[in-house]
Amino acid sequence: MAKILITDDEPDIVNLICRYAEREGYETVQAYDGSEAIELCAKEDFDLIIMDAMMPETDGFTACRKIRESRDIPVLMLSARGTEFDKLFGFEVGVDDYVTKPFSPKELMARVRVIISRHKASPAKDNDGILKTGGLVIDTLGHTVTADGGRIDLTAKEYGILLYLVRNKGIVLSREQILNEVWGYDYYGDDRTVDWQMKLLRGKLGAYRDYIHTIRGVGYKFEE
User: Fold this and answer.
1) Is pTM beyond 0.70 here?
2) How high is the mean pLDDT of the chain?
């Protein structure tokens, strides 16, 4: 049974999500502030955190960043604001998916199922070794990326996208293909998510950002 931490400063929202999650067979734990969520994650193991972005005291973005320093728990962020900036910032701190309020509880549960199944299916290690392209090096065993010897800190999704692009160097990949590979075949979301993540990834690659080519109307290609 998967265990979900539901964090929101609105009790009605927490209760609503709990009801639907428990109908799906999930165990639920409630928190009403980001600080409380951080404390719970230090004591208990969770398969997923559903967290509101805007909360008093400690907001969801701050809590997500703090939790990700020590725990690899997927996070689904809720927010009343659905701007591109908010989504980009959420992905930057490690958010796996983003749902704008008001939301459909059934759609939320569909996304929950995808995230949990994808996270559990992800292998801890990749046995393909070292991938090099120019001065960019991907160590798939250590799950690290360096550029000209300097470490690049990537989120799990950014790393997954870069690895997929490099392994298919010279091949044009559609947004749908990238979503299927990195998020899962039953991802229940928007293919613009790829564009937001790609923008963040390029920003971290420095001089190698131009290795990722946008193919207008199609998708992306990695090529030196």
Assistant:
1) no
2) 86
